[in-house]
Amino acid sequence: MNMINATPALQETDQLRADIYALLATLLRQAPNGDLLEWLASLESDQDEDTPMARGWSTLALAAKHSRPQQLDNEYHHLFIGVGRGELMPFACWYLTGSLMEKPLVLLREDLNRLGFERQPSVKEPEDHIAALCEVMSLLITNGHGYTAQHQFWQQHLQSWATKFFTDLQNADNAVFYTAAGLLGTAFMQQEDNWFLQLSPAARESGQQ
What we know:
mainly alpha, TorD-like, disordered N terminus
């Protein structure tokens, strides 16, 4: 996705949220390369913190230490591409309707147009791919859209199915490294749900605007 706009400084919490969405988008768009694996393997979690997010980070770091790019290319192919189709279908329409290219995609395209996003010509998948939606959320945060706009997009296009997708990813037969990615994604979606619930109406209106 391309965003036609630009960009105030972010609070630390919002920068972290944007970075996590961007990381999930990268992992779900294609298998991680050696540089990303090396960075993930270097992550150190707080040993005193026992939260779903902390467990997600530590599990992802451990999985990265024991993974190689070629192995992950094969894993990604079996999970998301396959022969005809992969084990999982990472699209909102599939999870919400059981088919591709249905009404949720129409509504998403209307929202993307309203928000000023353009699909990159090199991207072949429909815009309701989980990687694209995570990328949009990251861009909404970094490009200064307020919490109201972020919450509306998340509620409309991610809340109803993303946790189910990440749970399916944890439990997929072909997932090894991606079990850890699913664990982090599930924890993060639950954290986002709680975070939006805890925002006061005034904070939603004032955030990043």
